[in-house]
Specification:
The protein is 62% helix and 1% strand. The chain has 18 helices and 2 strands. The chain is globular. This is Ammonium transporter.
Length: 465
């Protein structure tokens, strides 16, 4: 039976939203799963990928049962003033009438035209953002966190940290009403994941001393494949956030790739000037920093702004990772993949540079009828207030997410240990999951194992006498 679209639905906008959401989903599964699996020691490849797969799945359940409406629904009035605008009412978004009705964010009053897609498209699009955030956070605790503790932590963190961040900045809450902007998640996702990953690394504790000293990537080509999925998947990340298949979506995608290329090259040059050679891991770090830094600014800056953000995000996180990491605090905290530098520093940098570089001639939405075009003006274009509110929003996200992460982990530690025992850390995947990344090779002798299947294939391939 043919069911026509409701009059408000734009097939183009809806198709792009679902496509963009799929691109973002691919960044987690398989993007981050195989990036992590390639960057860690071989004995942790399965566990690292499994942490991503679990986070992606559990967040979808949380998101549809209560998380989405906490981030984008009607406000939960906890009091007057600020307390009335920090989170939405937790309730499901699974009724047919809700899913198929027009996508709408109740408190949004930014001048955005009415959305031209069903609610289910918006819910799914926002889910993949919610899902990737704890997966990024995992980069700070790879190689030692108890998987059982991770299973408890992710749904709680998504509820009390991510959904609150989303409402305050994207759902029309307190920070949005102050005028702070975050085009596609520099603060809501990357600053949140970066600072929370760093706090989690401090609370969970370090890897084994020998693992911390030598954590050589087990498969750099796999890591490059995962990184490539992240880079191109980011076209959906930033290109989908105007919620329309419009000019600003195209601008955001071009800016994203400009900044990323500039950041990757900047990191490579910094490596070469510092140690005389470039590295694939360094190039991946630079790529990630560029993607992260342009995210809060992608649809607000022009191409020159994107290049400035790209160069800055290749140089400044390189300096913090290679110089700041030598200070006592950073030596004490075992941030496995350096998410503090690649996500917190890069995300904060991008958010603050948005306050400086946002070009009022880059329109997110063009004027229609009696409305005015929607754009953001930064300090360099005459609006110093934008930088100040960007700074305020950054501080709020840092304080809230640090506190939530610390408290949740301390409470979880009363139920299950946060860190695996040393004998389990010695073995890795086979002890935690009963599996290893490969089963056809003896790691000790580096020789193929004799299995019935292999023996049968060997006999089959023998030439006849």
């Amino acid at each position: 039976m043919y069911v026509p679209n409701p009059p408000f639905v734009s097939p183009g906008d809806t198709a792009w939203q679902l496509t963009a959401a799929t691109f973002v989903g691919l960044q987690s599964v398989p993007g981050l799963a195989i990036l992590y699996g390639g960057l860690v020691k071989k004995k942790w490849a399965v566990n690292s990928a499994m942490m991503v797969l679990y986070a992606f799945s559990i967040v979808l359940i949380v998101w549809t049962l209560w998380g989405y409406n906490m981030g984008f629904g009607s406000p939960l009035h906890l009091g007057s003033g600020i307390l009335s605008n920090i989170v939405g009412i937790p309730q499901p978004i699974l009724n047919a009438s809700q899913e198929q009705g027009r996508a709408v964010i109740p408190l949004l009053s930014s001048g955005m035209p009415a959305m031209r897609m069903p609610m289910s498209a918006l819910v799914f699009f926002q889910f993949v953002f919610a899902a990737i955030t704890p997966a990024i956070l995992a980069g700070g605790v790879l190689g030692r966190m108890n998987f059982k503790a991770w299973m408890i932590f992710v749904p709680l963190w998504s509820t009390f940290a991510y959904s609150v961040n989303a409402f305050m900045l994207w759902g029309g809450g307190w920070l949005a009403q102050l005028g702070a902007v975050d085009f596609s998640g520099g603060y809501v996702i990357h600053v949140a994941a970066g600072i929370s990953g760093f706090v989690a690394a401090a609370v969970v504790g370090p890897r084994l001393a020998k693992d911390k000293k030598d954590f050589t990537a087990n498969n750099l080509l796999m890591a490059v494949a995962g990184a490539g999925i992240l880079w191109l998947g980011w076209n959906g990340f930033n290109g989908g956030d105007p919620y329309f298949a419009n000019t600003d979506a195209a601008v955001a995608i071009l800016n994203t790739n400009l900044a990323t290329a500039a950041a990757l090259l900047s990191w490579v040059f910094m490596d070469m000037f510092s140690v005389g050679k470039s590295s694939v891991v360094g190039a991946i770090n630079g790529m990630v920093c560029g993607l992260v830094a342009i995210t809060p600014a992608a649809g607000y800056v022009n191409g020159y702004g994107a290049l400035i953000i790209g160069i800055a995000s290749g140089v400044i996180p390189w300096l913090t990772m290679n110089k700041l990491s030598e200070t006592r605090l950073f030596k004490k905290v075992d941030d496995t993949l350096g998410v503090f530098h690649t996500h917190f520093v890069a995300g904060a940098l991008g958010g603050l540079l948005t306050g400086l570089l946002a070009d009022p001639h880059v329109f997110e939405y063009f004027a229609t009828g009696k409305t005015s075009p929607v754009s953001i003006t930064g300090l360099f274009y005459g609006n110093p207030q934008q930088f100040l509110v960007q700074l305020e929003a950054l501080l709020v996200i840092v304080v809230w997410d640090s506190l939530v992460t610390f408290v949740l982990l301390k409470l979880i530690s009363l139920v299950v240990p946060l860190r695996l025992k040393d004998p389990e850390l010695e073995i890795g995947d086979s002890e935690v999951h009963g599996e290893t990344v490969t089963h056809d090779v003896d790691d000790t002798l580096n020789l193929p194992l004799h299995t019935p299947v292999l023996d049968m294939l060997s006999a089959t391939l023998q030439p006849e006498e």
